[in-house]
Amino acid sequence: MTVSQALREAADNLAKVSDTPRLDAELLMAEAIGITRSTLLLNHMRDDVPPAFAALLARRLDHEPIAYITGRQDFWTLTLRVSPAVLIPRSDSETLIEAAIEALAARPPQRILDLGTGSGALLLAALAQWPDAQGTGIDASDAALAIARINAAELGFGERVRMLHGDWRRPGWRETLPGAFDLILCNPPYVETDAALAPQVKEHEPHSALFAGTDGLDDYRILTPQLAPLLAPGGIAIFEIGASQRAAVSALAAASDFEVRCRQDLAGHDRAVILRPGAAA
After folding, report:
1. Neighbouring C-alpha atoms within 13 Å toward the C-beta of 170
2. CATH assignment at residue 241
3. Residue 87 located in a structural domain
4. In this structure, are 49 and 80 located in the same domain?
5. Where do the DSSP E strands lie in the chain?
6. Fewer Cβ in 10 A, N or C end of the chain?
7. How many domains does the chain have?
8. Ramachandran quadrant class, 167 (left: phi over 0; alpha: psi -120 to 50; beta: rest)
9. φ, ψ at 268 (rounded to 5°)
């Protein structure tokens, strides 16, 4: 069987588990051969199918995300390493970087904090955007921090970033942080405990990075009252939110005397809340 034939057959099978079956098949085939997808499509469609393809396809048919199979995920301008220890970075989260660029256009941040850094996606994207900035990422998972440190080193940010163990659910977590920050980024867990999720999410991505109580707001309740001392004068915090959480998260932020704005993602869904210390909105 040629690569072209195998891709058609694989796409038919993957239609049962994926919204992008042909793309998934091509990515898996490229991974099996050890080349890029574009090189595959241009130069290898008549080749014999590599032996490794069947095992990769079986993993995807078992709902394992493509990013975990290949160990990579693109985010912003970066390609990041990922593993089941970290949430897969999604394009929706790029809304936080876009919001930061707009909000800090007149005053680029020098010190950036990423709460719950996971793969380091938000922090490293911000450091790529602002080459003079220094960054700190915290996470409660040592396995996630290991991935974040690898990404920082491979992207050449090793001297500009610190990845620290920290759990905002435990007292004293702020004591390890070096001072105050011009920009705080956070994509906290915000999924309701009983939410219906696709198998590739619920069965494979880390639950500690997904679920936040019956209404999905537990971590916002913990974090929002603790933000002000972490912000330098003129600093802002930007949180990712679920599409239906704008009002609830804005109310929590306003109760802690933050002015609140919201930015939508490309699909028009509420996705990022921008918090500035000041009079309650």
Report:
1. 8
2. 3.40.50.150
3. yes
4. no
5. 72-75, 78-81, 111-115, 134-139, 161-165, 181-186, 231-240, 258-264, 270-277
6. N
7. 2
8. beta
9. 85, 10
156 with 264, same domain? Answer: yes
Contact 193, 211 (CB under 8 A): yes
Q: Which amino acid is at 14?
A: L
CA distances 19 to 22, 65, 137, 188, Å, are 9, 12, 33, 26
Residue 168 in this model has a pLDDT that exceeds 80: yes
CA dihedral 137, 138, 142, 143 (to 10 degrees): -50
Residue 67 lies in a domain: no
224-229 average pLDDT score? 94
CA angle 163, 167, 168 (to 5 degrees): 115
> Is pLDDT above 70 for 281?
no
Q: What is the pLDDT of residues 51-71, one digit of tens each?
A: 999 999 999 999 999 999 999
Q: Is 68 a member of any domain?
A: no
Domain residue limits at 18: 3-62
Q: How many CB atoms lie within 10 A of CB 206?
A: 18
52 and 123 housed in the same domain: no
Task: Work out whether the CA dihedral 107, 109, 115, 121 comes out positive or negative.
Answer: positive
- How many Å apart are CA 77 and CA 51, to the nearest integer? 32
